[in-house]
Design brief:
The protein has nine helices and ten strands. It is an alpha/beta fold. It has three domains: about 70 residues, Calcium-transporting ATPase, cytoplasmic domain N; about 110 residues, Rossmann fold (3-Layer(aba) Sandwich); about 60 residues.
Length: about 250
Protein backbone atom coordinates (compact mmCIF):
# COMPACT_ATOMS: atom_id res chain seq x y z
CA UNK A 1 0.00 0.00 0.00
CA UNK A 2 3.03 2.28 -0.43
CA UNK A 3 3.29 2.90 3.30
CA UNK A 4 6.27 4.91 4.45
CA UNK A 5 8.67 3.09 6.72
CA UNK A 6 11.90 3.92 8.46
CA UNK A 7 15.10 1.92 8.49
CA UNK A 8 15.43 -0.38 11.48
CA UNK A 9 18.54 -0.46 13.64
CA UNK A 10 20.09 -2.62 16.34
CA UNK A 11 18.13 -5.68 15.26
CA UNK A 12 18.36 -8.62 17.66
CA UNK A 13 16.82 -12.08 17.52
CA UNK A 14 16.06 -13.92 20.75
CA UNK A 15 15.74 -17.62 19.97
CA UNK A 16 12.36 -19.06 20.83
CA UNK A 17 10.96 -15.70 21.92
CA UNK A 18 11.02 -13.04 19.21
CA UNK A 19 12.94 -10.13 17.71
CA UNK A 20 13.54 -6.52 18.62
CA UNK A 21 15.05 -3.44 17.06
CA UNK A 22 15.04 0.35 16.95
CA UNK A 23 12.53 2.13 14.70
CA UNK A 24 12.63 5.93 14.72
CA UNK A 25 14.37 5.83 18.07
CA UNK A 26 11.79 3.51 19.66
CA UNK A 27 12.56 -0.04 20.72
CA UNK A 28 9.98 -2.31 19.05
CA UNK A 29 9.50 -5.93 20.05
CA UNK A 30 7.79 -8.63 17.99
CA UNK A 31 7.27 -12.07 19.46
CA UNK A 32 5.41 -14.40 21.75
CA UNK A 33 3.64 -13.48 24.98
CA UNK A 34 6.61 -14.56 27.11
CA UNK A 35 8.87 -12.15 25.23
CA UNK A 36 6.53 -9.25 26.01
CA UNK A 37 6.10 -10.19 29.64
CA UNK A 38 9.86 -10.53 30.18
CA UNK A 39 10.29 -7.00 28.81
CA UNK A 40 7.56 -5.65 31.10
CA UNK A 41 5.08 -4.80 28.32
CA UNK A 42 1.39 -4.79 29.27
CA UNK A 43 -1.07 -6.74 27.12
CA UNK A 44 -4.49 -5.01 26.89
CA UNK A 45 -7.63 -7.08 27.48
CA UNK A 46 -8.77 -6.52 23.88
CA UNK A 47 -5.56 -8.09 22.56
CA UNK A 48 -5.91 -10.95 25.04
CA UNK A 49 -9.33 -11.78 23.56
CA UNK A 50 -8.02 -11.64 20.01
CA UNK A 51 -5.09 -13.85 20.96
CA UNK A 52 -7.40 -16.44 22.50
CA UNK A 53 -9.60 -16.46 19.38
CA UNK A 54 -6.59 -16.86 17.06
CA UNK A 55 -5.09 -19.66 19.14
CA UNK A 56 -8.41 -21.51 19.24
CA UNK A 57 -8.28 -21.57 15.42
CA UNK A 58 -4.82 -23.13 15.53
CA UNK A 59 -2.95 -19.90 14.77
CA UNK A 60 0.14 -18.65 16.55
CA UNK A 61 -0.36 -15.21 18.07
CA UNK A 62 2.60 -12.89 17.59
CA UNK A 63 2.49 -9.62 19.51
CA UNK A 64 3.98 -6.28 18.48
CA UNK A 65 4.76 -3.79 21.22
CA UNK A 66 6.65 -0.67 22.19
CA UNK A 67 6.58 1.95 24.95
CA UNK A 68 5.73 -0.64 27.63
CA UNK A 69 2.60 -1.94 25.90
CA UNK A 70 1.64 -4.53 23.30
CA UNK A 71 -0.14 -2.64 20.52
CA UNK A 72 -0.73 -5.11 17.72
CA UNK A 73 -1.30 -8.76 16.93
CA UNK A 74 -0.20 -10.94 14.03
CA UNK A 75 -1.92 -14.31 13.65
CA UNK A 76 0.21 -16.77 11.68
CA UNK A 77 -0.30 -20.44 11.00
CA UNK A 78 1.58 -23.30 9.43
CA UNK A 79 -0.39 -25.18 6.82
CA UNK A 80 -0.79 -28.77 7.90
CA UNK A 81 0.64 -31.04 5.22
CA UNK A 82 -2.11 -32.90 3.39
CA UNK A 83 -0.56 -36.26 4.15
CA UNK A 84 0.10 -35.54 7.85
CA UNK A 85 -3.09 -37.04 9.31
CA UNK A 86 -2.77 -40.16 7.16
CA UNK A 87 0.86 -40.67 8.16
CA UNK A 88 -0.03 -40.31 11.84
CA UNK A 89 -2.78 -42.92 11.46
CA UNK A 90 -0.41 -45.31 9.69
CA UNK A 91 2.25 -44.88 12.37
CA UNK A 92 -0.25 -45.48 15.14
CA UNK A 93 -1.53 -48.54 13.29
CA UNK A 94 2.05 -49.82 13.14
CA UNK A 95 2.31 -49.57 16.93
CA UNK A 96 4.24 -46.30 17.06
CA UNK A 97 3.30 -43.76 19.74
CA UNK A 98 3.16 -40.34 18.07
CA UNK A 99 3.73 -37.12 20.00
CA UNK A 100 4.03 -33.51 18.88
CA UNK A 101 6.62 -31.22 20.45
CA UNK A 102 6.29 -27.52 19.71
CA UNK A 103 7.04 -24.07 21.00
CA UNK A 104 3.46 -22.97 20.35
CA UNK A 105 1.13 -22.39 23.27
CA UNK A 106 -1.13 -25.18 24.49
CA UNK A 107 -4.28 -23.93 22.72
CA UNK A 108 -2.64 -23.64 19.30
CA UNK A 109 -0.82 -26.94 19.73
CA UNK A 110 -4.03 -28.73 20.75
CA UNK A 111 -5.88 -27.40 17.68
CA UNK A 112 -3.12 -28.57 15.31
CA UNK A 113 -2.81 -31.92 17.09
CA UNK A 114 -6.54 -32.50 16.71
CA UNK A 115 -6.31 -31.91 12.95
CA UNK A 116 -3.35 -34.29 12.66
CA UNK A 117 -4.80 -36.93 14.97
CA UNK A 118 -1.96 -36.71 17.50
CA UNK A 119 -2.91 -37.71 21.04
CA UNK A 120 0.10 -36.51 23.01
CA UNK A 121 1.23 -32.89 22.82
CA UNK A 122 4.26 -31.23 24.41
CA UNK A 123 3.55 -27.51 24.04
CA UNK A 124 5.38 -24.27 24.88
CA UNK A 125 8.73 -26.04 24.70
CA UNK A 126 11.62 -23.65 24.12
CA UNK A 127 14.27 -24.69 21.56
CA UNK A 128 16.84 -25.45 24.23
CA UNK A 129 14.32 -27.62 26.09
CA UNK A 130 13.41 -29.89 23.16
CA UNK A 131 16.53 -31.96 23.70
CA UNK A 132 15.58 -32.35 27.38
CA UNK A 133 12.16 -33.67 26.38
CA UNK A 134 13.78 -36.23 24.07
CA UNK A 135 16.14 -37.32 26.85
CA UNK A 136 13.22 -37.70 29.23
CA UNK A 137 11.43 -39.99 26.79
CA UNK A 138 14.61 -42.02 26.35
CA UNK A 139 15.12 -42.29 30.11
CA UNK A 140 11.68 -43.88 30.38
CA UNK A 141 12.88 -46.72 28.16
CA UNK A 142 11.48 -45.51 24.85
CA UNK A 143 13.30 -45.55 21.53
CA UNK A 144 12.78 -42.07 20.12
CA UNK A 145 12.61 -40.98 16.49
CA UNK A 146 12.43 -37.23 15.95
CA UNK A 147 11.15 -35.58 12.77
CA UNK A 148 12.02 -31.91 12.27
CA UNK A 149 13.10 -29.31 9.75
CA UNK A 150 14.15 -26.19 11.63
CA UNK A 151 17.32 -24.85 13.22
CA UNK A 152 15.66 -25.20 16.61
CA UNK A 153 15.10 -28.92 15.97
CA UNK A 154 18.77 -29.74 15.31
CA UNK A 155 19.86 -30.54 18.92
CA UNK A 156 16.83 -32.81 19.45
CA UNK A 157 17.42 -34.51 16.09
CA UNK A 158 20.99 -35.27 17.13
CA UNK A 159 19.91 -36.56 20.55
CA UNK A 160 17.13 -38.84 19.28
CA UNK A 161 17.86 -42.49 18.57
CA UNK A 162 16.81 -41.71 15.00
CA UNK A 163 16.77 -38.16 13.66
CA UNK A 164 14.70 -37.63 10.52
CA UNK A 165 15.03 -34.30 8.71
CA UNK A 166 12.71 -32.90 6.07
CA UNK A 167 14.68 -32.30 2.88
CA UNK A 168 13.04 -28.92 2.35
CA UNK A 169 14.15 -27.76 5.81
CA UNK A 170 17.32 -26.08 7.04
CA UNK A 171 20.83 -27.34 6.38
CA UNK A 172 21.52 -27.45 10.12
CA UNK A 173 18.64 -29.88 10.69
CA UNK A 174 19.75 -32.05 7.77
CA UNK A 175 23.32 -32.22 9.09
CA UNK A 176 22.11 -33.21 12.56
CA UNK A 177 19.81 -35.98 11.32
CA UNK A 178 20.46 -39.63 10.55
CA UNK A 179 17.95 -39.76 7.70
CA UNK A 180 16.73 -37.08 5.30
CA UNK A 181 13.43 -37.19 3.41
CA UNK A 182 14.54 -35.67 0.11
CA UNK A 183 11.06 -34.90 -1.21
CA UNK A 184 9.82 -33.34 2.01
CA UNK A 185 6.76 -35.60 1.91
CA UNK A 186 5.93 -37.07 5.32
CA UNK A 187 4.91 -40.40 3.81
CA UNK A 188 8.64 -41.03 3.65
CA UNK A 189 8.60 -41.56 7.42
CA UNK A 190 6.26 -44.53 7.07
CA UNK A 191 8.22 -45.83 4.08
CA UNK A 192 11.45 -45.70 6.10
CA UNK A 193 9.79 -47.55 8.98
CA UNK A 194 8.43 -50.31 6.75
CA UNK A 195 11.72 -50.73 4.90
CA UNK A 196 13.75 -50.82 8.11
CA UNK A 197 11.45 -53.43 9.65
CA UNK A 198 11.57 -55.55 6.52
CA UNK A 199 15.36 -55.24 6.39
CA UNK A 200 15.66 -56.31 10.03
CA UNK A 201 13.35 -59.26 9.37
CA UNK A 202 15.51 -60.30 6.41
CA UNK A 203 18.67 -60.09 8.53
CA UNK A 204 17.10 -62.33 11.16
CA UNK A 205 16.03 -64.81 8.48
CA UNK A 206 19.57 -64.93 7.09
CA UNK A 207 21.10 -65.39 10.53
CA UNK A 208 18.57 -68.10 11.34
CA UNK A 209 19.35 -69.98 8.14
CA UNK A 210 23.11 -69.69 8.60
CA UNK A 211 22.93 -70.73 12.25
CA UNK A 212 20.66 -73.68 11.51
CA UNK A 213 22.85 -74.84 8.64
CA UNK A 214 26.00 -74.78 10.75
CA UNK A 215 24.36 -76.47 13.73
CA UNK A 216 23.24 -79.32 11.48
CA UNK A 217 26.28 -79.63 9.21
CA UNK A 218 29.27 -79.10 11.50
CA UNK A 219 28.64 -82.18 13.72
CA UNK A 220 28.11 -84.34 10.62
CA UNK A 221 31.36 -83.09 9.11
CA UNK A 222 33.22 -83.56 12.42
CA UNK A 223 32.23 -87.23 12.58
CA UNK A 224 33.06 -87.81 8.94
CA UNK A 225 29.45 -88.38 7.97
CA UNK A 226 29.38 -85.59 5.39
CA UNK A 227 31.24 -85.91 2.10
CA UNK A 228 33.57 -82.90 1.57
CA UNK A 229 32.17 -82.30 -1.92
CA UNK A 230 28.62 -82.25 -0.57
CA UNK A 231 29.73 -80.00 2.31
CA UNK A 232 31.33 -77.55 -0.13
CA UNK A 233 28.23 -77.51 -2.32
CA UNK A 234 26.01 -77.01 0.72
CA UNK A 235 28.16 -74.08 1.87
CA UNK A 236 27.90 -72.46 -1.55
CA UNK A 237 24.14 -73.02 -1.55
CA UNK A 238 23.92 -71.43 1.90
CA UNK A 239 25.72 -68.30 0.70
CA UNK A 240 23.59 -68.08 -2.44
CA UNK A 241 20.37 -68.47 -0.45
CA UNK A 242 21.37 -65.68 1.95
CA UNK A 243 22.24 -63.33 -0.91
CA UNK A 244 19.07 -64.27 -2.78
CA UNK A 245 16.93 -63.64 0.28
CA UNK A 246 18.55 -60.23 0.74
CA UNK A 247 18.01 -59.31 -2.91
CA UNK A 248 14.26 -59.61 -2.36
CA UNK A 249 14.50 -56.19 -0.71
CA UNK A 250 15.03 -54.72 -4.17
CA UNK A 251 11.36 -55.44 -4.84
CA UNK A 252 10.31 -53.38 -1.83
CA UNK A 253 7.58 -50.90 -2.64
CA UNK A 254 6.12 -48.26 -0.36
Amino acid sequence: RDLAHSEGRDFRSVVGRGVEGQAQGTLVRVGRRLFMEEAGLDIPAALEQKMAAAEARGHTAVLVGWDRQARGLLAVADTLKQEAAGVVRDLQGAGVEVAMITGDNASTAAAIAEQAGVDRVLAEVLPEDKIAEVRELQSSGRTVAMVGDGINDAPALAQADLGIAIGTGTDVAIEASDLTLISGNLTGVMTALRLSRRTLRTIKQNLGWAFGYNVAAIPLAAFGLLDPIIAGAAMAFSSVSVVGNSLRLRRFSA
